[in-house]
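Input/output pair, single chain:
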Amino acid sequence: MKHYAGDRTPDGCEVMVLDMNHEGGGYILDPRNDLRNHSPDGFNWGYSGSGASQLSLAILADVLEDDSLANKLHIDFKNKVIARLDADRWTISEEDVRLAVADLAAARKR
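Output:
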């Protein structure tokens, strides 16, 4: 199972994907600017701005492996999860992301 680890540094915000099934045990999260370029300055979290939108989109695209669905859900995911990350360092599991997506999907059906 993947885990996403964010770290706010003096040089900016970095997000690693920890994945024991990947060569080297992980990789840097692709911002997926090809899908939507919310933030040319990169990722951020703890608020509802452009950096948080880019991080939300990138995590969903990585977990769901469905660019269209990631694009559709990323703003709601940002508001539910990413905007609430208030520390300089955090981790979130792939399972937590999938549970949040399931909650969002259920809420859309109501």
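DSSP finds three helices and four strands in the chain. Residues 3-109 form one domain.
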